[in-house]
UniProtKB/TrEMBL annotation:
Entry cofactors: adenosylcob(III)alamin
Protein purpose: Catalyzes the deamination of various vicinal amino-alcohols to oxo compounds. Allows this organism to utilize ethanolamine as the sole source of nitrogen and carbon in the presence of vitamin B12.
Pathway terms, separated by semicolons: Amine and polyamine degradation; ethanolamine degradation
Protein name per Swiss-Prot or TrEMBL: Ethanolamine ammonia-lyase large subunit
Residues engaged in binding adenosylcob(III)alamin: P193, Q245, S295, M401
UniProt keyword list: Bacterial microcompartment, Cobalamin, Cobalt, Lyase
Ligand binding (substrate): R159, L160, Q161, N192, E287, D362
Gene: eutB
């Protein structure tokens, strides 16, 4: 881009590229330090933000952080951008765009989504305070549907995550029933399998499908296996509702995941063709996480948050039901402590929503991070205020298969209660009809609950 410099406090700070400005402007995080792209000092960081605020938004369209000819994600971003949608803000600088976002209403902002690029969204987020990220995200509504409707304002959905270290169907079924009786499961009942065995995946999918249909639950199920496995399960005739895949923000990082855009397109079309949705036809479930490109040495010298935003451009190309930033899962090498995890969670949620995605968060940490459950409580509460679409529901908040700490069914009850949030409407009606939830959105303790449990057990034979 050339001649990127700013004079600040009597010192001239020079930056080799737009990527270098973006990286230096990022709030401190361990992953950028590990990659060697972080600001050298707080003064360096402030200088980068000062320069960033004065750059026109059009510069980020003209100067992608990964070259067009070298990366299919860059080509996807450039070739699908709707320049007319960007029109209302195309003449603004990054700083003026921040001010515009804080003053605009939700529909105005959402209309920009097809015109925004990940680099624009990452840039503006880097000069936003935490409260700015909450204020803007809270105005953004991204609604999707399959068997129930997710993302409606005033609603908070939960992915019921009944993982087990040996994929034991009986243990998974018990955890599933536990979550349902505590009001979780409207986002998806999703299992991370312990292995890649296709027969096991098919057994688990069939079991979940039997529970969902025997109890007439308006929700969807998913076994979070590799996309190639899901394609094979579809060919076998397994009851696939959603197709899952972890994705990243560069072609090389996606290649490390064993995918490319053509494979995602094939999977999307195959899953959509099953026609299993009732209220909508969003069939993809994507997971992302800051640091994934660096962990596969595919970051091109770009900071991890900008690359995370580029992963959202991949996701939106396939009209997903759910996008989940697994924000603290990769570990302290990328997000060191509770403060860094909180900031990343707010960035991911706001930036994903700005790009038009139905964002949820796995509010989590690994046991070697400088974080604890109090940090997760704070992040959960702030994200609830920010209007996150969904969170995780893990028995006891402790995933005994993946070995990390997340949020529990009880945490979901807490945040719904203190903020007056409700489940997805179709799922809420099911909870009420089965005596699980009362008219005030609280667990009812209705005596029909044992009957529901027996019905679920009998459904499994």
């Amino acid at each position: 881009m050339g001649n990127l410099h700013v004079d600040c406090g009597g010192t001239r700070y020079r930056f080799a590229s737009l990527a270098a400005v973006l990286a230096a402007a990022s709030p401190l995080r361990s992953g950028d330090v590990l990659a060697g792209v972080a600001a050298e000092s707080e003064a360096h960081r402030i200088a980068a933000r000062w320069l960033l605020a004065d750059l026109p938004l059009t510069h980020f369209v003209e100067h992608p952080v990964v070259p067009y000819e070298a990366d299919e994600v860059t080509r996807l971003i450039a070739d699908t951008q709707d320049h007319r949608a960007l029109g209302p803000v195309a003449g603004l600088t990054v700083g003026a765009f921040r001010d515009w976002l804080l003053a605009a209403d939700g529909p105005e902002i959402c209309a920009l989504a097809p015109g925004l690029t990940p680099e624009i969204v990452a840039a503006v987020s880097k000069i936003m305070r935490n409260q700015d990220l909450v204020s803007v995200a809270r105005k953004l509504c991204v609604v999707t549907g399959f068997r129930d409707t997710l993302g409606i304002p005033g609603r908070l959905s939960v992915r019921l995550q009944p993982n087990h270290p040996t994929d034991a169907p009986s243990a998974i079924a018990a955890a599933t029933l536990d979550g349902l009786l505590l009001g979780s499961g409207d986002a998806v009942i999703g299992i991370n399998p312990a292995g890649d065995d296709l027969d096991t995946a098919q057994t688990l999918l069939t079991m979940l499908d039997e529970i969902v249909h025997a109890l007439a639950i308006p929700t969807q199920s998913c076994v979070l296996t590799h996309v190639t496995n899901t394609l094979e399960l579809i060919r076998r005739g397994a009851p696939v509702d959603l197709c899952f895949q972890s994705i990243a923000g560069t072609e090389a990082a996606n290649r490390a995941f064993g995918i490319d855009l053509a494979l995602l397109r094939e999977a999307h079309e195959a899953t959509l063709a099953l026609g299993r949705g009732t209220v909508g036809h969003n069939v993809m479930y994507f997971e992302t996480g800051q640091g994934s490109c660096l962990s596969s040495d595919a970051h091109h010298g770009v900071d991890q948050q900008t690359l995370e935003c580029r992963a959202y451009a991949v996701a939106r190309a396939y009209d997903p039901l759910l996008v989940n930033s697994v924000v603290g899962f990769i570990g302290p090498e990328y997000l060191y402590d509770g403060k860094q995890i909180l900031r990343a969670a707010l960035e991911d949620h706001c930036c994903g929503k700005l790009l038009g995605l139905p964002m949820g968060l796995d509010i989590c940490y690994t046991n070697h991070a400088e974080a604890d459950q109090d940090d997760m409580d704070t992040i959960l509460t702030v994200l609830g205020v920010a209007g996150v679409n969904f969170i995780m529901g893990v028995p006891g908040a402790d995933d005994i298969m993946l070995g990390y700490q997340s949020t529990s069914f009880h945490d979901a009850l807490y945040i719904r209660d203190v903020l007056g949030l409700r489940p997805a409407p179709e799922f809420e009606a099911w909870l009420a009809s089965n005596g699980i939830m009362d008219a005030d959105g609280r667990l009812s303790g209705h005596p029909s609950l044992p009957g529901l449990a027996l019905k679920a057990i009998s459904a499994l034979g």
